[in-house]
Amino acid sequence: MDAQRLITSTRHALAQARSVPPALAEAWQACAVVEAVASLAAVRLAQQAEPSRYGSGVVEIAGALVEAAGHAAACVGRPPDDGGGAARARRLTAIRDVEGTVRDLRTLIHETAEALIVLACGAGEQELYWRCIDSVDAVSECQDLAADLLRAVTAARPPADPGADTGDAPADAVADAAADAAADPAGTGLGGGS
């Protein structure tokens, strides 16, 4: 499954969790997805690593995000009642758009932190409260690293080819069309002086 689809399905599952055990299970799943996606992104970035484009820093940031997400998953704790089932993250097969994926990953991380904060605020027992608070701290580190990774990937984006058709009219073409329309208000194609 493509990373962006996996992230979207994980966000949906997290949003649908309405009680403590399912919410903790989905927070753990989200952390596992972040870890897997960051790991695949690190591999893909390393394979594409042109020193002039990405440099070595972006791969290290992705690696640090892998470690931070693993720590966050450990803080949340694998749900005891999942029977040792496969993590949703095992469905990950590809990253088609690294920048878009990192953007979506940031959203998933943010929503995971919010879910953990809600759980902490409603916790009726100290153990659950502190587990959620520790998890929020760990997820917060993921947020910082994902923001750093997005900045690094965005900065390394190759410049747009001025001759490439991007589907958007260049500003000069728009200005030329506006000038033509002003010179020929009737739209006859004969110019405005006839």
- Which structural category do the helix and sheet elements fall into? mainly alpha
Gap from first CA to last CA:
62 Å
Uncertain runs: 166-194
Instruction: Find the count of extended strands (DSSP E, 2+ residues).
Output: 0
**Biggest sheet layout:** none
User: How confident overall, as mean pLDDT?
Assistant: 82
Q: Which percent bin holds the helix content?
A: 55-70%
| Envelope shape | elongated
Strand content: under 5%
Q: What is the number of helices?
A: 6
Radius of gyration: 23 Å
Q: Secondary-structure element sequence?
A: HHHHHH
Q: What's this model, at a glance?
A:
With 194 residues, the protein is an all-alpha fold.
Task: List the defining traits of the structure above.
single chain, 194 residues, 6 helices, 68% helix, disordered C terminus
Topology:
Blueprint: H1 3-16, H2 20-48, H3 57-76, H4 98-122, H5 126-155, H6 171-183
Describe the structure.
With 194 residues, the protein is mostly helical. The chain is built from 6 helices and no strands. The protein has helices at residues 3-16, 20-48, 57-76, 98-122, 126-155, 171-183.
